[in-house]
Amino acid sequence: MCNSCSCGTNTNTTTDVAIDESAATGSTVNTYTVAGMTCGHCVSSVSSEVGGIGGVTSVDVDLASGAVKVTSATPLDRETVRAAVEEAGYALVQN
Hints:
The protein is α+β, with helices and mostly antiparallel strands. The protein is 23% helix and 29% strand. The protein has two helices and five strands. It has helices spanning 40-51, 78-87, and strands at residues 14-18, 28-35, 56-62, 67-72, 91-92. The protein has a five-stranded antiparallel beta sheet with strand order 1-3-4-2-5, with helices on one face.
């Protein structure tokens, strides 16, 4: 059971969220680790918040590992990503 959102699921899911596929050239890819995700709803929340950051073109979240791969048209500030993850209700792990 999901302890974070009480949705009753605990699936190991990878979700790809394509936001703007036209910005494939010259893109920046960074991978972050997010703690506290336990289900598909958690993945969706993180994907949505991080995907809302200006310049983000795709977000790939792996629930099992907590890895969040973010592709953006320009480099992102880590604190901007941290704020989005925290807005979703989770924590960015210090790497």
